[in-house]
C-alpha cells in the first residue's frame, strides 16, 4: 500500500540524518578535500549534451588551485539549488524562511525570496513534508560547512534572488504555463492547497535526484561513493514519496504530474531524462498503472548535467543568465561554465 510505504520511509529519518552527519565529517577532512568536493558535485553533474546550453554563472573570486577552484564552484552550484528547495519547503511547511545567518557569504549578490506562504498541510502529508523540509535545511548547513572547510569563508556564496511566487509574475505560474497546467492568463498557486503543493514539490525533487545521479561517475573513492549513495538515496526517498502521494490522488493529479515531467524533459535539451508518474494509453489517458520510479528501461535513474539543471530552474533553453526560480542567476565561481557546453 502507498500509505504504508510513506510511513516506512518516514521511519528511516534518523538513519538518513546519521548518514548526513557522517558526510559532513568526511567532507571536513583536510586530506580528502577532492573527494568531498566530488561528492557534492552531484548537484552539478557532468553529463552534458552538446545541444544543451550552459547558463552563465555570476563571476566571483577564484581560488589559487584551478582544480580546487572548479570543485568549490560545483559545491557552490549545489548550494544554490539547496537554497531554493530549503526556502520553498521551510516557508510552505514550517511557515518561516531560513535564518539570515544561513544565507550570507562573500560570493555573488545577496538576493531576497519572492513569494511563499504556509500551505496548512494536515495528516500524513504534513508529517512527510516536515521531514523533507528539515532534510533540505540540513543540506544547506552541510554544503556551507563543506565550502568553508575546503576553501575558506571567502568562497561561501550568498543566497541569490529566489522566486517561489505563485502570482501572475511568479516562477511557479511560468512553469505551470509552460507545462500546460494553466492557461496563458491563469496563475498557479502552489500554496493554495495540498495537491498544488505536491505538484510544486514534484517539479523540484526529480531534478535533484537526476543531478546527484549525474555526478556518480566523478567519484573514485569508495568511501565517498558510499556516502554519496547514502545522500542520493535520501533524495530519492523524497522524490518517490512525492510521486506516490500524487499518484494516489487520481487522474487529475497524475496527468498534471506527467505534464510537468514532459516540460522538464523539453527544457533540459534533447534525449530522455524524465518520466511521468502514470502510464498512459495511446490517447494519453492513465491506464491505472503507476510509474513511481523515474528510470530508463533498465530501471536506472536518469542523469542531468549542470547545464541541464540550470535550464529547468531558469525555465529557459538558451544560454542566458537567470530567469524562473533564479531571476538574477545563481552565485558561483566556476569560470569554465561561462561558455556553452562546458563540463566542470
Automatic annotation (TrEMBL):
Name the UniProt record assigns to this protein: Ferritin-like domain-containing protein
Transmembrane segments: none
Region (Disordered): 45-65
Coiled coil: none
Signal peptide: none
Organism lineage: Bacteria, Pseudomonadati, Pseudomonadota, Alphaproteobacteria, Sphingomonadales
InterPro entries: Ferritin-like_SF, Pigment-catalase-like
